[in-house]
Structure formats: structure tokens, C-alpha cells
Amino acid sequence: MVGLPNLIKPLEEPVLKDPYLVAAWPGIGNIGLTSVDYLRDRLEAVEFAEIEPHHFFLPHTVNIERGVFEALKFPRSLFYYKKGERDLIIFVGEMQPSAEEDIYQIANCVLDVAQHFGVKRVFTAGAAVAPIHHTMKSRVWAVPNGPELLDELRKHNVLLMSEIGERGGQGSITGLNGLLLGVAKKRGIDGVCFLGEVPMYVANFPVPYPKASLAILDVLMSSLDIKVDVKDMDYLVGRAEQEIQRVYAALPDAVREQLDKFKTTAEAEASYGSGPITETDKEKIMKDVEEFFGKGKEKQT
């Protein structure tokens, strides 16, 4: 791929027509990464390039075969493509760099490849920690990098951050899932981040939350006008809900009573109003949940 930085290691150069880019890195609960990687797997997307890891990461494991050192294993940052009615480039990063300058450089590397193939729109995905109950459906927040995308996004069953409760359009997206949108805007590329809702207390549970990943996957399929089989994701959601309910049942009665208030909060905020739980209430609930799991860890040590 002539003209790209030396940090890009190509395997092949596919011929793509007006592709969209879908990208994700690890984040809270790996919500966005799970949805994007599931999409990649079900589409059987083909790997075609990698960002050279040595500049950005330390090795996270050492491979040993038959008792002999074989190689250092680095986190991978891989590009895939899928041809169809809408050609796609899918980027999956196994880790985010720790240094700020490296994070910015990774974002530019991803967009260098995107622009090489004529990408005009970028999608990223992550988690939105929200005051909802785990029995409620996870909604998807959408954050575009330009106001001209707002009307289009409303067609895809999402909540615009400017229309959520008392946020007044304010908020932040941490890490590369958000930074990529900002860098894309500087380059004149449209971008949208989809954030799947995770109950604020479940973020402290030692279990995954694929319900939010499935919600993002549904919105991605709608936005990209594609369809993949989601039965395996449905299975993961069912398993996770059983485990979450088990953990939930083990909480003290007083804590569960407070958490149950999130059911009515979610219903109220779905109508863009304010719920019955104050910020002070939320802080107390989270403190109780954190203390509960903190005591559990102390017993294990």
C-alpha cells in the first residue's frame, strides 16, 4: 500500500468501493469491542493489514514451546475487509497504548489506511455507564462528529446525547473510541460513536454485559444495511443475565432495594425526563455496591 506510514504492515491490497470503517478498542466491559469483533467474525472479514505493535506496546506474554522460549507476543491491531453491497473495513485493536502521543498516532494510522481506500464515514463503539436496571433493555447512545448526521441517526433507534435527560448535549468518550472521531473530523471524515448502556452498578460486577454489545450490533447492522446471525450473541446474553441475577441476589436486601429504583429511573429518562434518584442517591448506591465487592475480595485474599 504505497504512501502509507512504515508502521502499517500490509498483507494484501483489496479493491474496495466507497467503504465504511468500523473500529473498536477495549473499554468498559469491552462492550464496543465485543460487538465489532462479533460483526467481523460473522461476516468472515479477511485480514489485510496490521499496525506494527513494537512502537506502541510492550509484549504482554512470552510464548514457550516444549520448555523453550519461542517468541514475544504483542497486542495486535488488525485491519479486515468485507466486500458486499456496502464494502467495509473493520479495525480491531486488542489494546490501547498508554502514552497520549501513541494514542494519537494510532488514531492517525487507522485513518491513514481509511483514507487510502476512500473511506467517507467512520463508526466506533463503546459503553455508556447509565442509571438503568439490568432487567431493562440496553439503549444505544449516538454521538456524531457533525450536526449534519443528527437527522440520519434518528432513523436507527438510537438516543442522541443531546436528548438524554439533563445532559444538555454534554459528555465525553474516553480513549480511542472517542478520539478517532475527533481526528476524523479534522480530516473531513464523518464519524459516529455508538455507546451501549451498561447499568452503573453492573460495571462493578465481575461479569460481562453482552446485552449492551447486542444493542450496538443491532444499530450497526441498521446503519450499515447488513444482517448477521446473532443467535450466539443471544446465547451469551442469556448466560450473562443468569450470572448477573445470581450476583444481584447475593447483595444485601437494603442495597437491592436501592438498585431497584433504577427501574423507574430508566422509564423516566426514556421519556427524557428526570428520574426519582438524585445524584446523592446514586453515589450512595455505588458506594454500597463497591463496598460489597471490596469485602468479597478481602475474603478471597
SSE topology sketch:
Blueprint: E1 8-10, E2 20-24, H1 31-43, E3 46-51, E4 61-65, E5 68-73, E6 77-82, E7 88-93, H2 100-116, E8 121-130, E9 140-144, H3 150-153, E10 159-160, H4 176-186, E11 190-199, H5 210-224, H6 231-250, H7 253-270, H8 279-300
Parallel strand pairs: 2-7, 2-8, 8-11, 9-10
Antiparallel strand pairs: 1-3, 3-6, 4-5, 6-7, 9-11
Strand order within the widest beta sheet: 1-3-6-7-2-8-11-9-10
Give the integer mean of the pLDDT values: 86
The number of helical elements comes to 8
The rough form would be described as globular
Low-confidence parts lasting 5 or more residues at pLDDT below 50?
270-276
Radius of gyration: 21 Å
CATH topology annotation: Rossmann fold
Q: Biggest β-sheet, characterized?
A: 9 strands, mixed
Element order: H for helix, E for strand: EEHEEEEEHEEHEHEHHHH
How many β-strand runs? 11
Strand content: 15-25%
Give a short synopsis of this structure.
With about 300 residues, the protein is of the alpha/beta class. It has 8 helices and 11 strands.
Describe this structure as you would to a colleague.
40% of the residues lie in helices and 21% in strands. With 301 residues, it is an alpha/beta fold. The chain has one domain (8-251): Rossmann fold. It has a nine-stranded mixed sheet, with helices on both faces. The protein has a two-stranded antiparallel sheet with strand order 4-5. A hairpin with a 2-residue loop joins strand 4 and strand 5. Helix 2 (100-116) crosses helix 4 (176-186) and helix 5 (210-224) runs antiparallel to helix 6. The longest helix is centred in the last third of the chain and has 22 residues, at 279-300. It starts with 7 loop residues before the first strand and ends with a helix. The model is unreliable at 270-276 (pLDDT under 50).
